[in-house]
Amino acid sequence: MTERRKVLLVISSLSPGGAENHLLNLCRYLGSVSCIPAVLTISGKRTPIRNLLEGEGVEVIDFPLDSLAGLLLPWKLASLRRVVARARPDVIHAHLHHGEVVASIASVLTGVPMVATRHSYGLEFGGARKWMARILGHRTSRVIAVSAEAALEAARLGIPEGRIETIPNGVDTERFRPLEPARRRALREAFTMRHFGAPPGRDCTLIGTLGGLKKVKNLPVFIRMIPVLKAGWKDGAPPARFVISGDGPERGELEDLARRLGLEAEIAMPGFVGDPENLLPLLDIFVLPSITEGAPMALLEAMACGLACVASGVGAIPSILGGDGRDGGDPGAAGIVVDSRDPEEFAAAVLRLAAGEPQRPAFGERARSRAVSNFGLPAWGRRTLDVYEKATGLKF
Predict the structure, then answer these.
(1) Whole-angstrom Cα distance, residue 144 to residue 116?
(2) Domain 6-170+376-392, what fold?
(3) Which residues of the chain have pLDDT under 50?
């Protein structure tokens, strides 16, 4: 019988976000191929993602750390060494800056090889972090970059190119998929009734987004897009309603903006959703106005659900959507890429799709096809195991 390999995933916290969802997917994949994942977090907060992990049998280890300066304390280093030694991992896999620092030191203390995933570009490694990354990078056996830009940043920070693997995020295309029509109708009716009351006249067009409510997601643009959309909305068309799903520090600011614009009755903000596979398929159009991205999980999930997508042309988004999506006219595109952060440009792209033109279902079909062909979990997970094998010399 093949030995079950153990993977210790180290992350700063398990608050809702793309990197955390990536980690959740990875734990699920590792368990499906008879590896044993465990997660070490430096924040002891109870979060929905932590609850999901523990509910699925993944051990979550707390290593409380208020500041990275705490790692200068000898007793804290001894505690970290004991925690990792008890976990007995074959490889340590770090996520996000704080997790990478803790994992690097754990690797030094225990001799366990370390892999790091870089989830973004231009966000995490400015100022003093840049120099810390250069110093600790010597301990990193392999870096997984989720986009070409993230790979370039890793190389600029001193990681030899031969140790960098570009692996875009993966999505569970069995979990995230279009719903059977009758189930979709029933769930949409319940959702719109709960959040909007009975939509006036008939069914509505649901336009939404999903992700952490933080500045990098640029969600004020989503809200400021709405008055422009309403001004250009086709007479007699089903009314538009809007969904911002997720939680985070910008929630209050977004709610205030919606109130100032008189839109609070038209925007649902249901918070963190533990079953996004049952929410995304209810939408008609998915919008992602991020300032910067790696390979956004939410976009991949929306594509897997067969949604027509409008997204900023940042990070790996243009290559994920394929074709030349800059104007949405390329027959190979799975969505429309918007260059500007201008709400009017987003509104123009959404209006094209909302108008009921034939390309909307075509975009959705191509999106689903690209998600299945290029970003399915089995190929993504196997490529990650290949990186572990290169880092450790062991068979995974």
Answers:
(1) 6
(2) Rossmann fold (3.40.50)
(3) 1, 201, 325
